[in-house]
Design a protein that fits this description.
The protein has two domains: 113 residues, Aspartate Aminotransferase, domain 1; 258 residues, Type I PLP-dependent aspartate aminotransferase-like (Major domain) (Aspartate Aminotransferase, domain 2). 38% of the residues lie in helices and 15% in strands. It contains twelve helices and 14 strands. The strands form four sheets. It has a seven-stranded mixed β-sheet with strand order 2-10-9-8-5-3-4, with helices on both faces. A three-stranded antiparallel β-sheet has the order 11-12-14. Helix 10 packs parallel to helix 12. The protein binds 4'-deoxy-4'-aminopyridoxal-5'-phosphate. The site of 4'-deoxy-4'-aminopyridoxal-5'-phosphate (PMP) has 11 residues, from helix 3. It is an enzyme of class 2 (transferase). It holds the Pfam family Aminotran_5. It comes from Terfezia boudieri ATCC MYA-4762.
Length: 416
């Protein structure tokens, strides 16, 4: 039964049981309409309410003013689709601004374009993938690597290089500066918004920052004003797989080139489902959106709001992850933390390895087997890196983490 297992999977992740219980009823008969929520038209008033409300919960939780400066849209295609979308839309914004500045003179834009860069901070597998997509769409010459954490760490992820060592291009040439706030596979999280990416308010050539918050959204306060776009797949901290929440600065929507301009400049034209202005102007309903997933997200966020909001969840995340890191650090003959720089340790995904037993025994296999017997599930590391990974997302209870920590202590003691 559900109560008998604790689940620390990296995504899809645990969802609050009460939300799922209500959702199962809603799948059969939503609000006494005689129809399940997944059967109602996405264009019905009922669906539109669900959408508006979910967007509002999101804004309230992240303290985003209702002054029209930011728009929330719901998209499909996961975080991965955003790797492409941000490139299309931010390069579009860069081009259209240049075009306006040069009074519509395409030749001048073409000349400027030679130096245009999408800037990437590489701190793990997901930011790397995003940068590879930019290179695929635009060519390597338009991708600039601000940092590659592996180069400063013997070929492995696990650190965030000091800002003095970052190579940023001139702001006027930067179409976007991209970072992954929490690297889900590698366990590296930015402690706070990087100073080096700050722009003064109203600066003409601002650096437009993109934050992938797929695995740590709504787990701590965020100063949204510092970002041009924040995106997050729902399946870790917000809800079910199927929707991605995208927060976009409104000015980007209002300044996009025509396909004719893009074609003339040999730039890729965004597929319509990745074109932010199209989705925004149709209130995320350019096509059939899975309203069931939006409903779940809304219910999760509503619960978050009534249980103390992001501040409370941030405090819990700190307690949960520190207790896991503590048992790892205190038992070095059994566990090794993957991230040794405590400043950049992820509060969401705690990565570790098992030391080989004294007699050369593979403790890892034994650890996972014993954990599973105790109903502690989803703690294997990503298939690309191995080891263990404990994901402490919002819906993972403190009592579940306490159970796991107790098991780890006991396991370590047994090894002597
Ligand atoms: N970014 C991050 C930080 C992720 O953790 C993931 C998936 N785990 C993705 C992007 C890709 O998301 P999706 O599988 O929804 O495309």
């Amino acid at each position: 039964a559900r109560e008998q297992v604790s689940y620390f999977g990296a995504g899809p992740a645990r969802l609050p049981t009460s939300v799922l219980a209500n959702a199962s009823a809603a799948l059969l008969n939503y609000n006494n309409t005689g129809l399940g929520i997944a059967e109602h038209s996405h264009r019905s008033a009922l669906s539109s309410n669900i959408l508006t409300q979910a967007a509002q919960y999101f804004k309230t939780l992240l303290n985003i003013p209702n002054d029209d400066s930011y728009t929330v849209i719901f998209m499909q295609g996961g975080g991965t689709t955003q790797f492409s979308s941000v490139v299309y839309n931010l390069v579009g914004y860069w081009v259209e601004r240049r075009l306006r500045k040069h009074g519509g003179d395409l030749e001048k834009v073409r000349a400027d374009l030679k130096d245009m860069k999408c800037e990437y901070l590489l701190t793990g597998g997901w930011s790397l993938k995003a940068s590879q997509e930019a290179a695929r769409l635009l060519g390597d010459e338009h991708v600039s690597i601000v940092i590659d954490a592996r180069k400063a760490n013997g070929g492995k992820w696990g650190i965030i290089p000091e800002e003095k060592d970052w190579s940023l291009v001139e702001k006027k040439d930067s179409a976007l500066a991209y970072f992954c706030d929490n690297e889900t596979v590698d366990g590296v999280e930015f402690p706070s918004f990087p100073n080096a990416l700050e722009s003064a308010e109203g600066e003409e050539d601002e650096r437009l920052v993109i934050g992938d918050m797929s695995s740590n959204i709504l787990s701590r306060p965020v100063d949204a004003k510092k970002y041009a776009v924040i995106f997050a797949g729902a399946q870790k901290n917000i809800g079910t797989t199927g929707i991605t929440i995208v927060l976009i600065r409104k000015s980007i929507l209002d300044c996009q080139p025509s396909p004719v301009t893009l074609r003339a400049l040999n730039l890729p034209i965004p597929p319509i489902m990745m074109h932010y202005p199209t989705l925004a102007s149709s209130s995320s309903l350019y096509n059939t959106l899975p309203i069931f997933d939006v409903y779940i997200a809304g219910e999760v966020m509503s619960q978050l709001l009534t249980s103390g909001g992001v501040a409370a969840i941030a405090a819990a995340a700190e307690r949960k992850s520190s207790s896991v890191y503590e048992v790892i650090d205190k038992n070095p003959t059994v566990f090794t933390p993957v991230i040794t720089d405590t400043r950049v340790r992820s509060r969401m995904n705690v990565c570790f390895r098992l030391v080989k037993g004294k007699d050369g025994r593979d403790l890892e296999k034994q650890f996972f087997e014993e954990a599973e017997k105790k109903g502690l599930l989803g703690i294997k590391g990503h298939r690309s890196v191995g080891g263990g990974r404990i994901s402490c997302y919002n819906a993972v209870g403190e009592e579940e983490v306490a159970k796991l920590v107790a098991f780890m202590k006991e396991f370590a003691t047994k090894q002597g």
